[in-house]
UniProtKB/TrEMBL annotation:
Cellular compartment(s): Cell membrane
Cellular component aspect of the GO annotation: plasma membrane
Source organism of this protein record: Caldanaerobius fijiensis DSM 17918
Broad class of where this protein is predominantly found: membrane
Domain Phosphatidic acid phosphatase type 2/haloperoxidase: start-end pairs: 61-172
Protein name stated in the entry: Undecaprenyl-diphosphatase
UniProt superkingdom: Bacteria
PANTHER family xref list: DECAPRENYLPHOSPHORYL-5-PHOSPHORIBOSE PHOSPHATASE RV3807C-RELATED (PTHR14969:SF62), SPHINGOSINE-1-PHOSPHATE PHOSPHOHYDROLASE (PTHR14969)
Matches recorded under InterPro entries: PAP2/HPO, PAP2/HPO_sf
Length: 176
């Protein structure tokens, strides 16, 4: 079993370096920090609150906003619990030659930005498929950006995407 985990860990690090070092360019150096911030709390929380407040007469939009808020809240609690339970150091703290854009202080696993992006995207997809598909693409790019800027391993992003997909589906099934 330890061989299997070791192989996965090496693959995780290899893929991280491909995204963090090999695809580097000046355009992505400007674009990726913007993409990563699309799923930050200063963006996702005001958007969901704004949609909820704005949607008094559109019950479908109001329900989507409510489910999105619940998904974001629930998934955030799980992300924070996992971060402290696993205590995985960020790549820049343990790997050599990592290109990072700023210092981060908390743990790496799982990616909260990716979880938030997928929570919003899947919540939207349930009610508005065309817009949801666009947001799923954005969520995927948020995950890539988290590795590009050097703050998450691929497995952090993968688990964040899974959590961000499961929560809206569970919330929706409970409320319907």
């Amino acid at each position: 079993m330890s061989r299997f985990i070791n192989a996965i860990s090496k693959s995780d690090i290899r893929l991280f370096y491909v995204i963090n070092k090999k695809v580097k360019c000046k355009l992505l150096d400007r674009v990726m920090p913007v993409i990563t911030n699309l799923a930050g709390p200063l963006v996702v929380i005001p958007i969901t609150l704004f949609l909820y407040i704005l949607s008094k007469e559109n019950m479908l939009l109001r329900r989507m906003a409510l489910e999105s808020m619940l998904s974001l809240s629930g998934s955030h609690l799980v992300v924070q619990a996992l971060k402290h339970a696993v205590s995985r150091e960020r790549p820049g703290f343990v790997l050599d030659d990592v290109y990072t854009f700023k210092d981060f202080y908390d743990y790496s696993f799982p990616s909260g930005h990716t979880t938030a992006a997928f929570s919003m995207a899947i919540s939207t997809f349930i009610f508005y498929q065309p817009v949801g598909m666009l947001l799923i693409f954005v969520a995927f790019m948020v995950g890539i950006s988290r590795m590009y800027i050097g703050v998450h391993y691929p497995s952090d992003v993968l688990i964040g995407a899974i959590l961000g997909t499961i929560f809206p589906l569970v919330i929706h099934s409970i409320l319907t």
